[in-house]
Specification:
By secondary structure, this protein is an alpha+beta fold. It has helices at residues 2-7, 11-16, 26-35, 42-47, 55-65, 68-105, 120-127, 200-206, 247-254, 273-289, 300-343, 345-353, 358-400, 410-436, 440-445, and strands at residues 110-118, 133-147, 166-171, 181-185, 195-199, 215-220, 223-234, 242-246, 261-268, 294-299. It is built from 15 helices and ten strands. Helix 5 crosses helix 13, helix 6 packs across helix 13 (358-400) and helix 11 runs antiparallel to helix 13 (358-400).
Length: 447
C-alpha cells in the first residue's frame, strides 16, 4: 500500500506536502477545541489567560492521531504484546491459585501405596512405630471402568497405566477428609450400599449425559456391577481419580471380605516438607519390616510440584512470545516517530522560529510516544481478559481436568505498563533529539 500510494502522488501534492492531513480527523478537531479553552475564576486571576490544558501535551495528542494508519499500527503491535504478556502472567497467577486449591484438598501430608491389599490392623500396628504421626487413614483403591447402561467402558490412560486411569475409592468411616464440593446430589451415607459418587472429570469423560439419580455400570476386575449415582463432586487432581463408595458398598458389589486396604494417608504433627519426607521414608521401612510390600511412599508435595510443572513450559512460551512482540512494537514505534518527524520538518522549524526551546520540542515528541504506549495498554485490556479466560479454560482442562481459576496478575499489568512506557521513551528519544535540533534554515530548505 505505501508503494502504490507513493506512485500515485502528483508533483503538486508533493510540493504542497506539509506533513498534515488535508482533512483533519474528528479526534484532532476535538483536541484543537480543547486547546482553545481558558481557565476561569481564581485560576484565571492568578494565572492570567493561560490555556486550560497544557498546549504542548495537546499538540502531542493531536500529532499522535493525525496519521490514523501509523497510529493503529504502532498501537496494535504494542497491544498484542501486552495482551500476551499479561495473559501469561495471569495464567501463572491462576496456576498458583490452583496449587492452593490442591493444597487445601490434600489435607494429608504423605501417602503410601501397598503392592497388595492388607488387613487394617496389621498396617496400623506397623505404622504405630513411626514417630511424628498424628493420624493414619486406611483406604482401598481399585481401578475400574465406567460406562452407561448397555455400553462398554473406555478409559484413556498413559503407558504407566496410572495417569488418566479411573479408580473407585472406599471412604473409611473415620475419614477426616471433608466432602468435596457437590455439583449435583449428595455425599455418601454411612454404610450405604449400591451408591457411588463421581467427580466431574470422570462423569464428563465417560458418561456426560448422566447425573445424580441415574444408573451406571462400573466394571471391577472386568466384571460389570450396577450402581446408582447419588452425587457428582468437583475436585482437581488431588482427589481419588474418579469415584467414591463405602467399604460396605464395595463388599456388597464384589463379594469381597470388607476391610482390606491398599492405601495410607498420613497426617503428621508438623506439615513442613522435611517432616513429610521423613515420615514417608519411615513408613516405607516400617511396613517393609512388617512384611507388607510397599509400592510407593512419598510426600504429597511431590505430586503438587509435578502438577504445577505441566504448565511451566506453556507459560514460558507465552512470555517468550510476548517479549519479542514488545521489541517489535518498540521498533515499530521508533519507525513511526522517525517518519512523523520527517513529515513535520517544516512544523518544527516554525516552532523554533516563534521561540520554542529545544527541550519543549523534545518533550512534545516524547509525549507522543508515551501517549501511543498508554493507548496500547487501554486497547489491550479487554482482549487480555478474554485471552486469559480462553487459555485458562483450555490449558486447565488439558492438564488438570478443570479450568484454571480466573486471575488477573496485577504484578504483570504493572510490569508491562512500566516496560511499555520506558520502551516508548527510549524508542522516541532519537526522534525527539532530531526534532529538537532542526534549524529554521533546514526547515526552509526542506522539500
Amino acid at each position: 500500500p505505501p508503494l502504490v500510494k507513493a506512485s500515485r502522488t502528483t508533483v503538486r501534492a508533493a510540493i504542497d506536502h506539509h506533513g498534515g492531513a488535508a482533512t483533519p480527523s474528528a479526534a484532532t478537531g476535538v483536541l484543537a477545541r480543547l486547546g482553545r479553552l481558558r481557565r476561569s475564576g481564581s485560576w484565571s486571576r492568578s494565572l492570567g489567560s493561560s490555556p486550560l490544558l497544557d498546549r504542548g501535551l495537546l499538540m502531542a495528542l493531536r500529532n499522535t492521531v493525525r496519521r490514523p494508519a501509523r497510529f493503529w499500527l504502532s498501537v496494535g503491535l504494542l497491544a498484542c504484546a501486552g495482551m500476551v504478556f499479561v495473559a501469561g502472567m495471569s495464567l501463572r497467577s491462576g496456576t498458583q491459585a490452583a496449587d492452593q486449591q490442591r493444597i487445601a484438598q490434600r489435607y494429608w501430608d504423605a501417602e503410601a501405596e501397598l503392592a497388595a491389599p492388607a488387613r487394617p490392623d496389621a498396617v496400623a500396628a506397623a505404622v504405630r512405630q513411626v514417630s511424628g504421626i498424628s493420624r493414619v487413614e486406611t483406604w482401598y483403591r481399585t481401578q475400574i471402568g465406567v460406562a452407561g447402561p448397555g455400553r462398554l467402558p473406555l478409559t484413556r490412560t498413559y503407558p504407566d497405566q496410572g495417569h488418566g486411569s479411573v479408580s473407585l475409592n472406599t471412604v473409611p468411616p473415620d475419614a477426616t477428609r471433608p466432602p468435596p464440593t457437590l455439583r449435583e446430589g449428595r455425599w455418601l451415607g454411612s454404610g450405604e450400599t449400591g451408591a457411588v459418587v463421581l467427580n466431574q472429570t470422570i462423569r464428563d469423560r465417560t458418561i456426560p449425559g448422566l447425573g445424580a439419580g441415574d444408573t451406571v455400570q462400573i466394571y471391577i476386575d472386568g466384571k460389570p456391577t450396577t450402581w446408582r449415582i447419588v452425587g457428582v463432586v468437583e475436585e482437581g487432581d488431588a482427589g481419588g481419580r474418579g469415584a467414591y463408595t463405602t467399604t460396605e458398598g464395595l463388599a456388597a458389589a464384589t463379594g469381597r471380605v470388607p476391610g482390606q486396604v491398599n492405601q495410607l494417608r498420613v497426617i503428621t504433627d508438623r506439615h513442613d516438607e522435611q517432616t513429610r519426607q521423613t515420615a514417608a521414608d519411615s513408613i516405607d521401612r516400617a511396613l517393609t519390616g512388617a512384611g507388607i510390600e510397599v509400592d510407593s511412599a512419598a510426600s504429597v508435595s511431590r505430586g503438587s510440584a509435578a502438577s504445577s510443572a505441566h504448565l511451566g513450559p506453556v507459560l514460558m512460551v507465552l512470555l517468550g512470545v510476548a517479549l519479542p512482540l514488545g521489541v517489535l512494537g518498540a521498533i515499530g514505534l521508533a519507525s513511526t516517530m522517525s517518519a512523523n518527524i520527517l513529515d513535520r520538518t517544516r512544523e518544527f522549524g516554525i516552532m523554533h522560529a516563534i521561540g520554542a526551546r529545544p527541550k519543549i520540542v523534545r518533550r512534545i515528541v516524547v509525549a507522543e510516544g508515551v501517549f501511543l504506549a498508554m493507548t496500547s495498554c487501554l486497547v489491550a485490556a479487554i482482549p487480555a481478559l478474554g485471552l486469559t479466560r480462553m487459555l485458562g479454560t483450555g490449558l486447565g482442562n488439558l492438564f488438570g481436568d478443570a479450568p484454571l481459576p480466573f486471575r488477573i496478575s496485577t504484578l504483570g499489568v504493572a510490569i508491562w505498563i512500566a516496560l511499555v512506557l520506558l520502551g516508548a521513551i527510549l524508542a522516541t528519544d532519537a526522534a525527539a533529539a532530531r526534532a529538537s535540533r532542526i534549524t529554521v534554515r533546514e526547515a526552509l530548505t526542506y522539500l
